[in-house]
Amino acid sequence: MTSEPVLELHHVFKSYHTPHYRSTPLKDVSVTIAKGAFITITGPSGTGKSTLFRLLTRLEEPDAGRIVYLGKPLLEWDPPRLRRKVHYVFQSPVLFPGTVADNLSYPARLAGDSITEEYMSSLLRRVALSEKYLSRGIGDLSGGEKQRVNIARSLSLEPDILLLDEPTSALDEKSTKHIEQEIRAYHEAGHTVLWITHSPEQAKRLGNVTWHLEDGCLEVLVAP
Amino acid sequence: MSIVTTLATTGFVFIAMLLSLRLRLGLERDMFTGTIRAMIQLVAVGYVLEFIFTSRHPLFIGCMLLVMVFVAARSSAKRGRGVPHVFARIFFTIAAVTAVTIGTMLGLDMIKWEPKSIIPVSGMVIGNCMIVSSLLLNQMRERSASMREEILVALSLGATSRQASERLTREAIRAGMIPIIDSMKTVGLVQLPGMMTGLIIAGTSPIEAVRYQLLIMFSFTAASALTSIILGFLVYPTLFTRAHQYIGWK
Q: Which residue of A178, A204, B43, B226 sits 20 to 30 Å from the alpha carbon of B102, by its own alpha carbon?
């Protein structure tokens, strides 16, 4: 593994305020992500883990500081293109109306492209679903199946950096193991993975670098 | 109809007010204000129209139409609070749709080049555009809130603002047009439309009145479609930043 930086955060601040509420999930966060790293992110609920992912994909802007991807500030990237390369998989699986195939081919269609049924079947196999699911309506899927289709749809983008927000929270133990295995294989193929988890056991299983976010501060923990 | 008869028509409102009092609906004050306002507004408009119809000057016709579009846009803009420059967007939409609709009617000789044709027909078109605009803005506001997650997921998959809001815009436009399509399906069976009723009472033959009514209904359909589409495409970008970030309406 090389230590070439793929993402860099320099003195990043982010806060939200309304007349009745004020929170600062990120206070002066500076950190570097090496190419090919597998980082797990832990921390209490509402401490800015998802905020961090929204900033890394430019779904939101930081109040101050700079984020750099492949040596170029995020502000210089075309946002749709950036989000295909640094891709955020949301915690709750949101699928579009239609069939599983419609959902799997959605990212390709956005780019004016198409994908074959064979490729869609291989995506489903990666999340332990059979090709029979392709013609299923999304209304017929269970919560766990929806999450697996959600992950398969994201894998179709083959992003450089995969940001996963508690992807296995709605899955049973067997499916969790399968998804962990698949994401590990994706990482071993040379991709960078950031994975938010609430489970210390899962964090231990997945990677040797953990970021702990609390009170707006990020602490890097490296397992021996 | 004599002035005395006209004044006697307020008797209908008194019946409603008495019922409201008896049933403790608490609507008497609103009914009274509404009646007075309607009388003053309509009498004033009656005198203004009489003046414009007599003078036949294009400048006065233009001013009257501008005032109508202005009032319609202001009323509809209340539904779009939080949408940047919503009044300007609605004003442009209604003005453009009215110009196209009335222009087509004049060009095809469906209505005559005279104030007594142009102003009432424009009024109906503008009123219809106002209702469609309000419906569309309501729909877009509700749907943009309920479809927030879906829009964010689409953006994260590499969609542009236009792609991410495609379903939202399409469904809001569709919902904005449903009332006019529904009313076309039941017209004549459930109720006789206002214009047709007015013409028949004024002595026009029912067949002639139907012809005018069809002209109005079909032009309303086109005007509704145009209003929904133009306004939908003018307001959806305000849900996003230039960097394709979803911000919604406050």
A: B43
